[in-house]
Amino acid sequence: MTKLPVAILGATGAVGQRFIQLLENHPWFEIQEVVASERSASKTYAEAVNWVLDGSPPKQVAQLVVKALEDELSSPLVFSALPSDVAREVELRLASAGHIVCSNASAHRMAPDVPLVIPEVNAEHIELIDIQRKKRGWTSGALITNSNCTSMPVTMALAPLLIFEPTHLNVVSMQAISGAGYPGVPSYDILDNVIPFIKGEEEKLVTEPAKMLGKLVGDAVLPLPLIASAACNRVPVVDGHLVNIAVTLAKRPSLDEIKAVWQNYTGSSIVRQLPSAPKHPVI
């Protein structure tokens, strides 16, 4: 099987490194282009990157020459790990040029015609691509986003509970320092401390789950009518967020009924065929 060539934007950052790590030996994709800021451009990836993950960069990727953000790309599929302020322009330019851009950035998540996707939750939202292309005059290009790292587990936990009609949501997060990227939070702020505010995070936890759990009706997603509040905290843990959720359900199921729908939830049959799809999305 010939693998599809892909490019990584923001390849030298912590999120870009995670993309590279996850795509190593992928059965469908092969990294052929790495893109970063001007200070890294024209160097090999091995020379440009300060690898902060376990292990080392894959040998094939380490030998690639880093491209600049303004360079043309040949890969039809692009994974973006850019900061949101940079992603705002670059991602639209690449999508309009015909690339399919899958973005981790928040810049375009809440645009009405941009799918905000957790495949096991709302695979049907990918149909927004047809509306997006028609609206923006794109042909082969597209822009798809994933959610904030804390919105994702909240949404995944709530999806099986939609049959019980959630009405109110209160979320308190304890988020690891890796979520701030590299070099992250100043050590004097985070050591032996909890920082009780993360700029922009609380708004995302209120709006993003509602969009992802909403229904695609016609040419738009109708958000789930959920009254939500959130408090986000940064804690001195390297990896792994903890989220405490209190949810009000209109149908008042028993605890056994809740456990059963979590245990039996599988999501779309199409998604279950993907090579990285978990057998049980909710554990």
Task: Describe what is shown at a glance.
The protein has 283 residues and is an alpha/beta fold. The protein has helices spanning 14-23, 45-48, 59-62, 84-96, 119-122, 128-136, 151-158, 187-190, 201-212, 255-264, and strands at 4-9, 29-36, 67-68, 77-80, 100-103, 142-145, 166-175, 215-217, 220-222, 227-234, 242-249.
Topology diagram in text:
Blueprint: E1 4-9, H1 14-23, E2 29-36, H2 45-48, H3 59-62, E3 67-68, E4 77-80, H4 84-96, E5 100-103, H5 119-122, H6 128-136, E6 142-145, H7 151-158, E7 166-175, H8 187-190, H9 201-212, E8 215-217, E9 220-222, E10 227-234, E11 242-249, H10 255-264
Parallel strand pairs: 1-2, 1-4, 2-3, 4-5, 5-6, 7-10
Antiparallel strand pairs: 7-11, 8-9
Overall description:
By secondary structure, this protein is α/β, with parallel strands linked by helices. About 30% of the residues lie in helices and about 20% in strands. It contains ten helices and eleven strands. The chain has helices at about 15-25, 45-50, 60, 85-95, 120, 130-135, 150-160, 185-190, 200-210, 255-265; strands spanning about 5-10, 30-35, 65-70, 75-80, 100-105, 140-145, 165-175, 215, 220, 225-235, 240-250. The strands form three sheets. It has a six-stranded parallel β-sheet with strand order 3-2-1-4-5-6, sandwiched between helices. A three-stranded mixed β-sheet has the order 10-7-11, with helices on one face. Strand 4, helix 4 (about 85-95) and strand 5 form a beta-alpha-beta unit. The longest helix has 13 residues, at about 85-95. The relative contact order is 0.13. The mean pLDDT is about 95.
